[in-house]
Amino acid sequence: MTTDTAKQFHFTGSLTKDDSKTYHPHTFEVPAGTTNIHVDFAFTPFYATGRIHRNQIDLSFNDPDGIRGVWNRVKAEGADINGIYSTPGIGSWPIQPGTWTVFVAAHRILPPDTVTYELTISLSDEPLTITAPQYDGSQRVANANPGWYRGDLHAHTIHSDGWWDIPEFTAYMRGQGLDFVTLS
Prior knowledge:
By secondary structure, the protein is mainly β. It folds into two domains: about 120 residues, Jelly Rolls (Sandwich); about 50 residues, no CATH class. It is about 5% helix and about 40% strand. It starts with a strand and ends with a strand.
């Protein structure tokens, strides 16, 4: 089901175990001059009845030019897409007017429940008053000589499904004495 006004779009849907590993597209029109897209998303049940594992749903966004990003950490405060500082996992460049698509990505829907979801997209043309955080992008070479090095080849930040932002992640890994890390 879809309802919308000039600046807001509302979508609802339901998913079952047969929808696991599928994507459900919802399109909306973004007018020129839009400065921020706010996304609210909720689904229930979070945990499947009688199970310790949760249902896992993410949102992927395409703007008129293609892939914009993925919101893996669906949180109560919602996500923002803009040209200054978007929610982690989503690109921060000027908003392109035109047809956008949000995909409800049903990674894991566990039986026996039917999962219902609500998705609300709110558009704003108000000037943004936020600033992007500044990251220390410095890199260092642990040792330029051949040898054995201690590191982690598979780690995640909040830009996918991890718990830390990049500065917290790198500080922790440096504190563990690692010579290198990669983000996957």
